[in-house]
Amino acid sequence: MVTRLIPHVVFLLGGQGSQYFGMARSLYEKDARFRALQEELDEIATLACGRSPLSYLHRSRIGGPCDDLELTSLGLFMVEYGLAVRLRDHGLEPDIIVGASLGEFISLAVSGMADPHMALGFIARFTRAIPSVLPAGGMTAVLGSLEAVTAAVKSDEVSLASVNSDQHVVLSGKSSALADVSRRLAISGAICCELPVRYPFHSSACDSLDALMRRLVDGYSLGFSAADRVSVTGPETWSSSIAGPRTSFSGTAAWEAIARPIRFSETIRALPKYESNLYVDLTPSGSLAAALKSMRVVRAVHSIVTPFGRDPEMLSDVLREAKELGVLRGGRAEFDEED
Question: Taking every annotated instance into account, which residue ranges of this chain make up the domain Malonyl-CoA:ACP transacylase (MAT) (predicted)?
């Protein structure tokens, strides 16, 4: 029997701001099973919204930011859900799933709490409805001291969307107000990066989304009963909006996922034996892995999909370490091209 050397395997699922054109393309080209999953989900998404996320994300010549809310949200679901399936194919099962922002909706499908096709359809519905309710705005990632960021935010038009560490913060709000804050922070030496997001999620502006999300959840079946879990031994699903586990989903939970501040670092610290777990970030760009590393409290952190195009190699690295740690549950520990 292989000795398990860590307490838990944790999958991290994130959302808007981590997408980019060509994300997961190298894995799509080299992994036949992943490619088939992407094409299957793309058909469902295209039926739901009338446009193809794959065609949008994999175009060879792109001008402008990757910020189409509906298509990028569907694309994020497709990539993250597809990665979870492939990791499980190789025997890496999560004990815990942590969702942040849109990742909370993706976690419903990855955990088995919702049918993946129904979850994809729901994402299409609510992202299509948001522009009619939420004012335009944006989000900005900041590498700089929390003290300096707090001092620079002098307007109620800007909110702290996420505090990942005392040196890694995300702001959300009106675009002009974010630009003013970024200019003040640049003077203090902070690095500000505008994210490809057109709306001020996780800010006070999202109060207007409460009724919308309640109505959409009440009027749409996600393919599960709120009282049901697929298995009592299935993975725990944790929400970064409440920094705790979720066992059901409601309109209030849907609103909290996109409106409340992202309490990612607090959620991680609340996990059992959090310092010793194996964390695998399924988010494109490895944004949650970067946030986790900035906390300087965990040792085993992996991302898979990054702009460097080494997705197959990074998948192999994850599986290799998982095998060494004794957490593979069958399947193969190596990635084969055209597998």
Answer: 12-308
Fold annotation for 9-133+204-324: Malonyl-Coenzyme A Acyl Carrier Protein; domain 2 (3.40.366)
Measuring CA to CA, how many Å separate 57 from each of 53, 97, 119, 128, 304? 6, 26, 20, 18, 18
CA dist 172 and 153 (Å) reads 11
C-alpha 168/C-alpha 191 separation (Å) is 10
Q: 301: which DSSP letter? A: E
Q: What is the pLDDT of residues 27-42, one digit of tens each?
A: 999 999 999 999 999 9
Residue 334: Cβ within 10 Å count: 11
CB of 80 closer than 8 Å to CB of 107: no
Answer with the residue of higher pLDDT: 294 or 283: 283
Q: Is residue 260 a contact partner of residue 231, using CB atoms and an 8 Å limit? A: no
Fold of 138-194: Alpha-Beta Plaits (3.30.70)
pLDDT tens, position by position, 150-173: 999 988 899 999 998 888 999 999
